[in-house]
Design a protein that fits this description.
The chain is α/β, with parallel strands linked by helices and 446 residues long. The protein folds into 2 domains: 107 residues, Urease, subunit C, domain 1, CATH 2.30.40.10; 296 residues, Alpha-Beta Barrel (TIM Barrel). Helices cover 38% and strands 22% of the residues. Strands 1, 2, 3, 4, 5, 14, 15, 16 and 17 form a 9-stranded mixed sheet that branches. The radius of gyration is 21 Å and the shape is globular. The model has no long low-confidence stretch (mean pLDDT 96). It binds zinc ion (ZN). The site of zinc ion has 7 residues, from loops. Zinc ion binds next to loops.
Length: 446
């Protein structure tokens, strides 16, 4: 891909670098897809192919959504205000069991569009395959949108309806195929292994997925102790809580991403810490589905990397500004302490800590010379962002995804002044509407 040089001129740069620098009237030069210079207005500048005037804008690293299930959004507007087991079995299971590849492409395009519009430049999407090419369609959609992504590919091989189950050998073969086909594509798509979690996969699935990920030098993502029963069920079969069970299996490691960790005790937290396992917190989904409150502040105090995720339809949105706000409000309330977590830490969770979770902290997650140019700009000439005093609090407490004006991924401008350069937004929305309606109509006959 030919990279034009880009100069972003005279903005407020929230760098998220080690020193936490915020540069007023700052400029960024992007060459060959990477940040080549940063400085005060006038310092970083040289003639560039494209100049983006950023006066009146905050420029920050693109947001990282470290856990999503785009396919669940096929049930948007259908599955709501119902008990979690019904939400899961009547809607999510039907999607995992019956959605066709073209449904996956349409919904991944729609959610990807929502993510881009609201400032997400990188997502980890967790798909549970039946081996009909679901993961390929998600990867294809993200590739067409120019979104950076990890496809966390897994399969369910126990305790779910027959129409979802894929046996261990076929499942592992399919995940390996997806890895070979997509990992490293355009340097923007990666593939991880993703056994769903103790309740819905066999021990062999867990162990083999982890072993294969190690062999292929990629990562493993799995759901850990999201609910009380998920945390406790291994006690019946193995005499251990879930985290201890996973640790004894050898599944926890610096290349393991544990999603949720709501029902974890002090011992579990020490195991997560000792093994270098990364954690993804999904505050909106945990609240909406009434899972509970993850001990995120304790995990952060222990030095565990905790990033933020959407977690599919449980959040009802793919807007990471809403997720950041949910994280801040949840932990302030839960601790009866309005100082429990600050805006800068929350923004770190959605940027540099997200990059650490993905093992990409040397490439993305902050505005630093040599890093890939994954950047967004927020237009602050808005009533909800006036007056601007502290950029962190403005981003986390006052901004909305709708305030994002510009999106750059890998040094390519995807959205400029609120308009996509290469995407037909209406076409993607109309196509998704059509596919969603047709999916639920067809599903009724099954
Ligand atoms: Zn999930």
């Amino acid at each position: 891909m030919s990279h034009e040089s880009i100069l972003i001129k005279d903005g407020i740069l929230v760098t998220m670098n080690e020193r936490g620098e915020v540069i007023k009237n700052g400029s960024i030069l992007i060459e060959e897809g990477k940040i080549s210079n940063i400085g005060k207005k006038g310092e970083a500048e040289k003639k560039a192919d494209v100049v983006i005037e950023a006066k009146g804008k905050i420029v920050l690293p693109g947001l990282i959504n470290a856990h999503n299930h785009v396919c669940q959004f096929l049930a948007r507007g259908r599955a709501y205000d119902i008990p979690f087991p019904v939400w899961d079995s009547e809607y999510m299971f039907k999607i995992y069991g019956f959605a066709r590849p073209e449904d996956y492409y349409a919904i991944a395009s729609l959610c990807g569009l929502e993510m881009l519009k609201t400032g997400t430049t990188c997502v980890v999407d967790n798909v549970f395959t039946r081996g009909v090419g679901e993961a390929d369609k998600i990867a294809e959609a993200f590739e067409d949108l120019d979104l950076r992504a990890c496809i966390a590919c897994g399969f369910m091989d126990r305790a779910v309806p027959e129409y979802i189950i894929l046996d261990k050998d076929s499942g592992l073969k399919e995940c390996k195929r997806v890895y070979r086909q997509w990992n490293g594509k355009n340097d923007k798509i990666r593939v991880w292994f993703a056994p769903p979690g103790f309740g819905m996969c066999t021990e062999d699935n867990l162990k083999e997925s982890f072993r294969l990920a190690g062999e292929l030098k990629t990562k493993v993502q799995t759901h850990v102790s999201a609910t009380f029963s998920a945390a406790m069920n291994p006690l019946w079969e193995h005499g251990k809580r879930e985290v201890e069970y996973l640790s004894d299996l050898g599944i926890l490691s610096p290349d393991t991403v544990a999603v949720h960790c709501v029902w974890v005790n002090d011992k579990d937290i020490q195991l997560i810490k000792r093994t270098g396992t990364k954690v993804v917190h999904n505050p909106a989904s945990n609240m909406y589905l009434a899972f509970g409150v993850a001990p995120v502040l304790q995990m952060i105090r222990e030095g565990i990397t905790v990033s933020l995720g959407v977690d599919g339809l449980g959040s009802n949105t793919s807007d990471m500004f809403e997720i950041m706000r949910a994280a801040a409000y949840l932990h302030k309330l839960h601790n009866f302490d309005s100082t429990a977590i600050d805006a800068k830490k929350v923004l770190e969770m959605a940027t540099i800590d997200g990059a650490r979770t993905l093992g990409l902290e040397h490439e993305i997650g902050s505005i630093e010379v040599g890093k890939k140019a994954d950047l967004i700009a927020i237009d602050i000439q808005r009533p909800n962002l006036t007056p601007l005093r502290d950029a962190y609090s403005m981003i986390v407490y006052c901004a909305k995804g709708d305030d994002v004006s510009d999106v750059i991924i890998d040094g390519e401008i995807v959205m400029r002044d609120g308009a996509f350069l290469n995407l037909d937004e209406s076409k993607i929305i109309d196509k998704a509407k059509e596919r969603i309606e047709s999916f639920w109509l067809d599903k009724g006959s099954r």
